[in-house]
Amino acid sequence: MAKKMREITISYILPILLLLLAVETHAHNVTRLLASHPSFSSFNHFLTQTHLAGEINRRTTITVLAVDNAAMSALTSKGYPISTIKNILSLHVLLDYFGAKKIHQIRDGSALAATLFQATGAAPGTTGFVNITDLRGGKVGLGPDGGDLSSFFVKSVEEVPYNISIIQISKVLPSETASAPTPAPAEMNLTGIMSAHGCKVFAETLLANPGASKTYQESVEGGMTVFCPGDDAMKGFLPKYKNLTAPKKEAFLDFLAVPTYYSMAMLKSNNGPMNTLATDGADKFELTVQNDGEKVTLRTRINTVQIVDTIIDEQPLAIYATDKVLLPKELFKASAVEAPAPAPAPEDGDVADSPKPAKGKGKGKKKKAAPSPDDSFGDSDSPAEGPDGDADDATADEASAVRIVGGATAGLVVSVFCLFASSSLL
Ligand SMILES: *[C@@H]1O[C@H](CO)[C@@H](O)[C@H](O)[C@H]1NC(C)=O
Ligand SMILES: *[C@@H]1O[C@H](CO)[C@@H](O)[C@H](O)[C@H]1NC(C)=O
Ligand SMILES: *[C@@H]1O[C@H](CO)[C@@H](O)[C@H](O)[C@H]1NC(C)=O
Ligand SMILES: *[C@@H]1O[C@H](CO)[C@@H](O)[C@H](O)[C@H]1NC(C)=O
Ligand SMILES: *[C@@H]1O[C@H](CO)[C@@H](O)[C@H](O)[C@H]1NC(C)=O
What we know:
This protein is an alpha+beta fold. 41% of the residues lie in helices and 18% in strands. The chain folds into two domains: 37-179, FAS1 domain, CATH 2.30.180; 185-357, FAS1 domain. A seven-stranded mixed sheet has the order 2-1-7-6-5-4-3. The chain has a seven-stranded mixed sheet with strand order 9-8-14-13-12-11-10. The longest helix has 23 residues, at 2-24. This is FAS1 domain-containing protein. Belongs to the fasciclin-like AGP family. Residues 27-173, 186-326 form the FAS1 domain. Pfam families: Fasciclin (PF02469).
């Protein structure tokens, strides 16, 4: 009987799921689109290298100005670091749709298009805009705003109206701003960047801690991602922070940064635990990245926070703002480990949140009437407990189709919801 049910599930649900997945994969993939054009292989390679491909795929109504391998080698022969190449190539991604037709029918013969370079905040003034002008004789010239229109439209390479258009231009757009040396990572003013974008309280807290400041500054060069709590969240947390001993304060600050550069697109495809700057031998100080549709959340056994803003994303540094303060279990687990507070403080409301990240795990949880939510979570994570095991697995994000079929309706509903959520948000 159960087997019959399963067969029915497979034969009816699976095609529906695959259909939904097919809809999902309709989102364009610039790497794949360019792969069938070998004369753009170098350009394509650098879109991947600079992680711009992920940013392009995340957006719709976009135009990529591609150059062929010969034009690309003129750029790569200059020995620019990858961060500069990223800036230059991001000037070649227009945040509007220009097919071959539209580019020849520009109103008043000239237009300015914003680019990904402008959007990253790295371009001063309007230097991140591209001027597209219909020149005499049907020629279309392109150049950075205020610069020479010395690159020309060659041909349309791929068009998926109105999601993505890839057009060939004759040479790399000459831009002094984009090719200016990017500030050496070691010289980036981390706290200045954070202060200017809603993480002032965290930046000040970091500045006041020489140990953590040094660790942050030394880590930028090799790639770093910071998850800074927004000002309101950090302000509310300060009394708790001030209660920590000096080594714990430092560990807490170090915990909010990861020694690897992750663009938003990379975070979205990197579910799982990550080491932090506070990770040191026995002190794990891990955090877990978990996607839910377009949302990226971070969790520990204590709480879950959501990324709400990108403050900077310039290889090798990314800084994201979070809606709440992510709490490491190493510092905020049991009240015994914390300060010898006899009565639970009102802030312990955070702790009560903890089972939330584990969607659909309620059943397994009830078995343990553990008083401390920290202990019942996480450790009960791995071993599947009885028949609920399958259902637990269904919440895994990737390749879930097969598992969903073997498991819970709840999982199916969640996944279907995610698919809808992500396609409607794209
Ligand atoms: C354009 O993108 C949207 C959102 O990703 C997608 O639903 C739609 O199918 C795409 N259109 C084409 C023609 O690929
Ligand atoms: C895009 O296509 C490339 C090449 O086919 C593939 O390696 C990559 O995983 C794809 N990316 C996404 C997000 O599907
Ligand atoms: C584009 O550049 C040309 C030549 O410098 C200039 O005449 C034109 O006004 C510019 N177009 C826009 C929209 O700024
Ligand atoms: C970094 O930025 C902060 C805040 O804007 C400023 O007070 C500080 O002087 C800057 N530090 C350096 C080394 O430029
Ligand atoms: C800080 O510690 C004191 C004494 O250990 C305790 O009474 C107080 O509740 C703690 N405050 C916070 C915000 O944890």
